[in-house]
Amino acid sequence: MSFFTESQEQSLFKLYGRDAQYAENIDFFKNSFEQFLSKEIAPHAYQNDMEEVFPAESFKKLGELGFIGMPFPEEYEGMSLPFPYYCAGLESLAKADAGFALGVAIHGTVTDGILHYASPEIKRQYLADIISGRKIAAFGLTETTSGSDAQSMSTSYKYDPQTKEYILNGTKYWITNGMSAEVFFIMARNQDGKVSAFVIDKKGKGTFEQHKILDKMGVRSSNTAELVFQDYRVPEYCLVGEHGKGFKYAMRMLNGGRITIAAWCTGIAQGAYEKLLKYAHERKLFGKLLKDLDNTKKELSEMMIEIYASRELYQHAAFYKEDEKTVAQNAAIAKVKATEASVHIAERAIQLAGGYGYVRDSRIERHLRDALLGRIGEGANEVLKIVVIPRVIYQEFEKKPLINIW
Ligand SMILES: Cc1cc2nc3c(=O)[nH]c(=O)nc-3n(C[C@H](O)[C@H](O)[C@H](O)COP(=O)(O)OP(=O)(O)OC[C@H]3O[C@@H](n4cnc5c(N)ncnc54)[C@H](O)[C@@H]3O)c2cc1C
Fold first, then answer.
1. Can you give the pLDDT at residue 12?
2. Alpha helix positions (H), 97-200
3. pLDDT category, 18, cuts 50, 70, 90?
4. Does 141 sit in the ligand 1 pocket, CB within 6 Å?
């Protein structure tokens, strides 16, 4: 009796496409990328966090280096490299400066959306600039009164047939990159309740204001803004894809976004873990090093296991990002796991470092403040656990009867 078909047998060794060569490539890439980050990004992270500075120049540098465009097509100045490599890079970037990395990740989500859904005219106008990092992009879905319940948005649009323009009115809130972006992916509703997406810039007619949201608890080196539109007119080619499909596009983009947030949180967790690991090799107590206490060994092991699990889940989800059937569940599972793990690991790292972990100078506490956003943004974990993941569990159960072997 054979368990597999002949062609399945031939492809078995390629499980997930993640062979020894892949592991070697990822290692090589992460190593050289982290050399760069240790010189160019990490040394400024503390100050940027304190002063709430988004390092726009570093964004440009990452663009010149090719990282911003890594998973995007060469025809638009990208590198056409597989998405899992890009996610591995985001993990490292978040370890160095999670606030900055959040801006990079969301920029990537917008780029992906434009690539998949926008008209040739939008692509021609914006893609090369955002893929190369010359311009920054922002994603505008949330409003003060609609977050998890995003469909209840009140930002409106209507079409003016005389001028062939769309007119936007309303306010978006919590928009990452909102102050520095030049390209905006905005969702709005018409009077029939249909949600459409628009890619706009600041050259339209009417009012488009950006107000910085100050004093966030974490991700302070990302810039977050309120965007206000008053009779803001944009050309009709700014409509993304089909009229009324904006919400669907946004949800699909968020699948990719959740994978990047899972990678991002894995980087935060890794940062907290490494700082604790180093400190445990230096701190003496009861005539021993902190690392030699049984509890420290146990906690470091648990952290390492959680980080491995988070990394495996986001890498798996990244490999299958273009598989429409499984991406929503893979992304939600990876996002929930990595975000919960990062909060737990950052909190435990502070505890094990004692008083030193509790002061800013240790650079450990920043990881907890940053990690807490992961559970809220890109679909609060409660929504994923109560709505998205159970849908998959029940569908599977109903579609494929369990084989009773108990
Ligand atoms: C720093 C930062 C950056 C952000 N960047 C962006 C961005 O770039 N673009 C953008 O569009 N948005 C952005 N957001 C918004 C973010 O996506 C929302 O904050 C998130 O979707 C949650 O919405 P809310 O804050 O309105 O919380 P609410 O929707 O008011 O939810 C509050 C809480 O209720 C619980 N909850 C919600 N729904 C359910 C449910 N169905 N069942 C059970 N419990 C539930 C959850 O615990 C949730 O945290 C950002 C937010 C922050 C804080």
1. 60
2. 98-117, 120-122, 128-131
3. confident
4. yes
Atom of ligand 1 nearest to the CA of 375: 49
Residue 219 CB less than 6 A away from ligand 1: yes
Closest residue by Cα to atom 32, ligand 1, is 148
Last residue of a domain, one of 246, 272, 288: 246
Q: Categorize the per-residue pLDDT at 184 as very low, low, confident or very high, splitting at 50, 70 and 90.
A: very high
Span 46-88, pLDDT tens digits: 999 999 999 999 999 999 999 999 999 999 999 999 999 999 9
User: Does 242 lie in the same domain as 173?
Assistant: yes
Q: Write the Ramachandran bin of 113: left for phi over 0, alpha for psi from -120 to 50, otherwise beta.
A: alpha
On whether residue 65 sits in a domain, the answer given is yes
Q: Is the CB of 94 under 6 A from ligand 1?
A: no
**324 and 286 fall within a common domain:** yes
Per DSSP, 213 falls in state P
Q: Which amino acid is at 44?
A: H
Query: Is 5 contained in some domain?
Result: no
- Residue % of the chain over a pLDDT of 90: 92
Select from 201, 34, 64 the least CA-distant residue to 131. 64
Q: 358 and 268 share a domain?
A: yes
Among 246, 270, 300, give the residue marking a domain's end: 246
The verdict on 200 and 330 lying in the same domain is no
Instruction: Kindly report the protein residue whose alpha carbon is nearest to atom 12 of ligand 1.
Output: 142
Active site residues: 378
CA of 261 to the centre of ligand 1 (A): 14
Domain region containing 340: 247-397
Please give the pLDDT value at position 9: 67
- pLDDT for residue 265: 98
The dihedral built from the CA positions of residue 49, 72, 317 and 225, taken in this order, carries a sign that is positive
Atom of ligand 1 nearest to the CA of 149: 29
Distance 216 CA to ligand 1 centre (A): 14
**pLDDT of 362-404, one tens digit each?**
999 999 999 999 999 999 999 999 999 999 999 999 999 899 9
pTM over 0.85: yes
- Per-residue buried b or exposed e for 256-293, using 16+ beta carbons within 10 Å of the residue's own CB: bbbbbbbbbbbbbbbbbbebbbebbeebeeeeeebbeb
Q: How far is the CA of 144 from the centre of ligand 1 (A)?
A: 10
Strands 183-189, 195-200: pairing is antiparallel
**Does pLDDT of 171 surpass 70?**
yes
